[in-house]
Design brief:
This protein is α+β, with helices and mostly antiparallel strands. The chain is built from 4 helices and 4 strands; from the N terminus they run αβββααβα. A hairpin with a 4-residue loop joins strand 1 and strand 2.
Length: 121
Amino acid sequence: MDKQKFKISQRVRRKRHIRKKVYGNGHRPRLTVFRSLRHIYAQIIDDDSGFTLVAASTLSKDVREETNNGNVVAAAMVGQDLARKALDVGIRQVCFDRNGYKYHGRIRALAEAAREAGLVL
């Protein structure tokens, strides 16, 4: 097994362990994060109904105008944008699903920016 496939399989294994415990409902939806090499995506999901309530990414217009890559600064901007959109819809508390990624770098920057903008993780 080559290195890239091994890393992906390890992340998927960690993801399954996390998803056993983290579940979003109507009162406290789940904030999940996906990162690629170029971009970072975050969405708030109500697992009871199966709908995405709010989404933000480095591809969204607000963030793309400020920066065009998926670094830590862009991740923090995505976190602020997501929190602002969530508060506009009336979502204050979420449970954080790091999706198998380690809690550092871009994932940490997104979570901390969302907290500073008013979300309770």
